[in-house]
Structure formats: C-alpha cells, structure tokens
C-alpha cells in the first residue's frame, strides 16, 4: 500500500508543475504553527467529529496513536467534494484531494459509493471529473481510510476550510486541526464565516472555483494551504477581527486590476458582493492605513 501511494504521488508531479501558477514560498514561520491548531473547546463547540458524541460513534480513528505536535509538524490541506442525498438529507463524498506545504497534490481519488441508490449520481460526477483528471483512481471509503493511515504522520496537522464538514463526509476523527474559516475572521462574529473563495480573492487578488464543476478539491486545498502560509508569515493576529488583526491588515488583492478569465461584469459583481460581506468600515480602514 505504501508503494502504491508513492506511485500515486509521482504520477501527480507533472500535473503539479503545471497547476501551481503563482505559488510563492513565504519566509519561515513567524510564530509556532501549533498556535493555529484548534483546542478541545473549539473542536467541541464547533461540532467537529469527536468520539464522545453518539452521532459519531461509527466514525474511524485514522491513527491508533499520536505524537505531540511541534513547530516542525507537517501540515496537509484536505478538501472533499460531495453530492446531495435528498432522501436521507445528507452529503455523499465522491472526490478527495490532499496537498502538502509545497502545494503538491499528494493524494487524490474518486470515492466510489457502495450504495445503489447513489450510483447514478456518482457516475455522473465521475464522468465530469474524468474529463479534468483522466487518470484519477477510484477507491471505496474504507480504502481511503486505509490510505490516510499510511499517508499521515503521527503528528500531522490536518487543515481545511470548515473542515468539520469534510471529516463528517469521510466519517473520521482527527485531533490536530487548522481551520481557515476560524483563523481568519473578517466579519466580527464567530457565527458568520467568510467563504474560501472570498478570502482568497481578498488576500491574493484571484478568483478560485471557476471550473465547470462546482468546486475542484485540489484548488480549494491549495488555496487553504496558501492562506495558512500567509498567516504564518505574519503574526497570530493577522486576518482575525477578534485578535485585532483587521486593523493592521494589508489586503494583498488589487481589486482594480484583477486578471481573471471571466466576464468583466461577473468579476465586478463578485467583488462588490465580497466587499459587501465585510464590515462596512473594513476597506475604509485599509485605505487610511495605506495613505
């Protein structure tokens, strides 16, 4: 299994070289990445899968034991795409992608359903994905669990955007979590999270999630990793309204000169909506600081 995963990683290297268009390696961490990991209270109040809750009693533990995390623990970013099961009111995972700190896609597979009532939906999405990633593998959810056991270090930090949902889709527990919907807060309320698409547009001046598919999990995982690395290159307050990081925030995206392969009117509409979703005086403060 370890050899198979190694082969998968090598097969994705060429795609990675072409896909990473503007990756910028930031300076060394300016504070310990351990400080971004959610504590137990955050995991419980955020409804992340936890063994003490009956609703998660059938979920799987990825590792049998864990080592304490340190400033040198690796970070992997994960994203899972799903389709809706309207009858049972739940989401069914069909595509997973994981990237490392160099933004290489180190694991990607379709998640084949074993439920006949979902097979038609799965096949439709499978055909769409194969047009974009022709050589992608297919694994059952149980096989994905086994792959992750091999892929993850005992002190790995797992990252995502609203990653509690991804963990639920995969039906797994994990103790060391960084969530970009938590470490970045531009709304002034913990209950209102800023979408990954908006965060990336604000800080990098680029619009993600533009493919024919609703989302591309590799693109989303890379965006998540870049946001984490950006914050680590600044300080713990950066981008967090509650820690005062909005007052001294520098918006990296230049809204007046975005270069996007989209209709100009659509871009302008998106940017207006993005700004509207922030506190009213957010951009006024930024402009005043930049004078």
Written description of the protein model:
- By secondary structure, the chain is α/β, with parallel strands linked by helices.
- The chain has one domain (2-290): 2-Layer Sandwich (Nucleotidyltransferase, domain 5).
- Helix content is 37%, strand content 14%.
- It contains eleven helices and eight strands.
- It has helices spanning 2-11, 13-19, 40-45, 119-132, 141-151, 163-170, 180-183, 196-204, 217-232, 264-276, 282-290, and strands spanning 60-61, 75-85, 90-99, 105-111, 137-139, 157-160, 172-173, 177-179.
- Strands 5-4-3-2-6-8 form a six-stranded mixed sheet.
- Helix 8 packs across helix 9 (217-232).
- The longest helix has 16 residues, at 217-232.
- 30% of the residues are buried.
Work out the count of structural domains: 1
What's the total number of strands?
Answer: 8
Question: What is the terminal-to-terminal distance?
Answer: 57 Å
Query: Could you give the order of strands across the largest sheet?
Result: 5-4-3-2-6-8
CATH superfamily: Ribonuclease H-like superfamily/Ribonuclease H
The secondary-structure class comes to: alpha/beta
Give the topology string: H per helix, E per strand.
HHHEEEEHEHEHEEHHHHH
Task: Report the β-strand fraction as a percent range.
Answer: 5-15%
C-alpha geometry? globular
């Amino acid at each position: 299994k370890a050899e198979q995963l190694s082969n998968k990683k090598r097969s994705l290297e060429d795609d990675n070289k072409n896909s990473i268009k503007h990756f910028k390696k930031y300076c060394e961490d300016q504070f310990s990445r351990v400080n971004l990991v959610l504590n137990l209270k955050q995991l419980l109040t955020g409804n992340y899968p936890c063994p003490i809750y009956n609703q998660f009693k059938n979920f799987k533990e990825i590792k049998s034991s864990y080592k304490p995390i340190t400033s040198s623990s690796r970070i992997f970013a994960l994203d899972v795409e799903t389709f809706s099961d309207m009858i049972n009111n739940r989401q069914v995972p069909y595509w997973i992608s994981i990237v490392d700190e160099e933004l290489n896609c180190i694991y990607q597979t379709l998640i084949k359903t074993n439920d006949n009532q979902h097979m038609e939906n799965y096949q439709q999405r499978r055909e769409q994905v194969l047009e974009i990633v022709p050589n992608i593998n297919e694994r059952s959810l149980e096989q994905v669990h086994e792959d992750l056991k091999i892929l993850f270090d005992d002190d790995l930090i797992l990252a995502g955007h609203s990653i509690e949902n991804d963990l639920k889709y995969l039906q797994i527990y994990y103790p060391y979590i960084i969530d970009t919907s938590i470490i970045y807060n531009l709304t002034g309320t913990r209950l209102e999270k800023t979408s990954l698409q908006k965060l990336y547009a604000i800080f990098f001046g680029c619009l993600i999630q533009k493919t024919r598919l609703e989302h591309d999990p590799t693109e989303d995982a890379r965006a998540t990793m870049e946001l984490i690395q950006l914050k680590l290159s600044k300080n713990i307050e950066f981008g967090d309204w509650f820690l005062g990081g909005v007052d001294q925030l520098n918006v990296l995206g230049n809204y007046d000169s975005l270069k996007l392969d989209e209709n100009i009117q659509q871009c302008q509409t998106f940017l207006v909506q993005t700004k509207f979703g922030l506190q009213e005086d957010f951009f006024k403060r930024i402009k005043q600081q930049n004078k």
